[in-house]
Amino acid sequence: MNDTQARKPRRLSSTAIFIFFCLVPALIPVLLFTYYPIFKGIVMAFQNYSLFNLNDIRFIGFDNFRTVLQDPSLPTILKNTASWVFISLILQFGIGFLLALLLYKKFPGRGVYQGLIFYSWAMSGFLIGIIWRWMFNGQIGVINDLLLKWGLISERIGFLSDPKWAMISVITANVWYGVAFFAIMLMAAMQSIPEELFEAADMDGAGWFKKLFHVIVPYILPTIITTSALRVIWIFNFPDIIYAMTNGGPANSTHILSTFMLDKIVFNGDYGLASAIGVIAIILLLLYTMFYLFATRASKAGDF
Amino acid sequence: MKKKLFAAALLSVTAFSSITACSSGSTKDSSAGDSKSETVTLRMIESLTSPARTEVIKQMLTKFEEANPGIKVELISPPLESADNKIAQMLSSKADLDVMEVRDSTVKQFVTNNWVADLSADTANWADYKTLNNSAKLTANYIDNKPYYIPYGLYEKILFYRTDWFKEKGLEAPKTWEDLYQAAKKITDPSKNRYGYSFRGGKGADSYIVDMIRDYNGANTNPDDAMFLKNGSTIFSTPEAKQALENHLNIYKEGAPKDSLSWGFSEMVEGFQSGITGMLIQDPDVIDVVKQKMGEGTWSTAAIPAGSSGLTHFKVGAAGWGITSYSKHQAEAWKLVSFLSSPDQNKFFTQKTGLIPVHTTAAEDEYYKTGYYKPYMDMSADTAHYIPVKPETDYKGFGEWRNVIQQDTQLVILGKLSVDDALKKWDAYWLNEKKQGK
Asked: In chain B, how long is the greatest CA-to-CA distance?
């Protein structure tokens, strides 16, 4: 092989150029609707960008970041964000996994059960928040009524007004919402386990627990890793339920980073400040993603 | 390795998606108007949307179209929660809009950004302008003394109370905030799930606290700049402010459901009409809602209580119709706004939606002179005791303030912030606002 032949493949062939131009029509909307808003959001984080005075948009360096980082409620908000994400994730995964185990083998009426479980996933976050807000209402909520009727409590609980209960209440609603995602994804993964593996396990005399930990879990591990990684990001960026149920209160006890960001838009009309919070959220999520992929070794992850 | 890279890239993109939540989307709506035909199509957007109200507006638009065959109106009704943001985004991208709902809380923003037209020239030649009542004129000309919108109705709070429960306890409608506290305490009986007052601790709690503090400051409150006293200090800097805030906390602790710490508008109203609370302070649009749920003779309305000085300060809220500064059909748009704001149409609209009308002529109507609306007429007649104040919506920090005071009061109630520290913080907040200018 001479030098000319070795260099040849490095040049773009006419086929590659042709393919590139064929992709351009698809690339333009992606650039326009995905990457432009991201870029614009990052730029806005460094600007004085208030909806109340759009005639005064100017670069202000790191001022927005300074304001966010100096906010006295930030430590509480970060702590809340961590509990919101990880407690929700663990419960959603745990219950979702259990449901998947119960539902992945064929039995009469399985389709109906699957449909019922998937139901919550099809609802809007705000609607779920509003429904649960009324259910948790201290005076006229059905949850207090049931607990009183069953004799489990003697006095009504202010689920959304007591800081001790408020976080538990919003996480409960979020768990109800997210269980369906894990149930469906894990069930789909379980259904693809070859029957021979179970037959082989039976022949080896494996019991139910052994089958669970030596057949099912290893086989669906890539799905578990992928879905839980994605779910963390989604929960982190999901203000809907909290916003509709408690608006971050009482006294910041349920504020998370994404509701804090929304507050800056709704109350202040300050898109610059909100964008700075968005950038901080990206940095935190990137750190998490890198750590997670390193810890679980991405090669084990399933196809995205 | 490829899979690893792909996984990292995809997760990064998903992570990045968080920032798109804070990017302002631009909405470019295509024009529905057809410049070639003779018919002009006006595009109109509402903000305080509700299905029932939209229906009323549509009926009025039909009448307008019948009276003006050359003009068609296309009504845009975004969901209530996101309507103001949607309108602001449409205006910022100069989307095709001619008439829009302008509120006392959004007019400053619209004027600063040059989105709304000054209607001075139109109102100068408009016969019905003369019959607008003082509150309507005040709110229309709130910014720079120019009419940027014509209110379609006024919002002003009154006290709703359970006459049956009050009779049972031998009570009368409270005249002062202290009376309200005492009455609330007497009615409260948690064993019956019965409480005195529909306390607002959640979203929108700010105005309840501030109104009470103004009343306690009495004649010292400056009605033209009502976060301040006539001597220039803030309303939060006095011993009276402390008394007011303490009374507010006592009402919560002894006369309201614990849960009301997080109550917003709907929970307050639901609490009253479902028989949990005996008093509610709300706007007139709630009258119809309560009327439908509660029997005649079980409830009534009264004027807002006064501070220890005997004075009540009240804010008149307003919303109405304005014209975009860049509308290509200014004349037709004014035709529509003046039609909707005419005494006849306004009477129709306010009676259907339970608002206070904007024309003086409507006050003569029996509908407002007697019954549930009577306290409004009494309050406006007794100018020695009921003092209208200019809302603070023209300050830059107004939006943030609403959040600050709501969160801080929750902290005070939960014992995490002292009354003194809260007042000091609010005092500093408004001194800073004053320094920064409007």
From this structure: 82
> What residue type is A104 in one-letter code?
Y
Tens of pLDDT, residue by residue over A202-231, are 888 888 888 899 999 999 999 999 999 999
Task: Determine, for residues B261 and A161 on separate chains, whether the beta-carbon distance falls below 8 Å.
Answer: yes
Pairwise CA distance, residues B279 & A138, whole Å? 18
Mutate to test the interface with A, among B3, B19, B193, B401 (most CBs of A within 10 A): B19
With 0.95 as the threshold, say if the pTM is over it: no
ipTM beyond 0.90? no
- Mutation target to probe the A interface, by most A beta carbons within 10 A, among B5, B11, B394 is B11
Q: Count Cβ neighbours within 10 Å for each residue of A22-50 and write b for 16 or more, e otherwise.
A: eeeeeeeeeeeeeeebbebbbebbbbbbb
Positive/negative CA dihedral, B59, B60, B63, B65: negative
On whether the CB atoms of residues A225 and A219 are closer than 8 A, the answer is no
**Would the CB atoms of A156 and B258 count as touching at under 8 Å?**
yes
Question: How big is the A-B interface in CB pairs under 8 Å?
Answer: 178
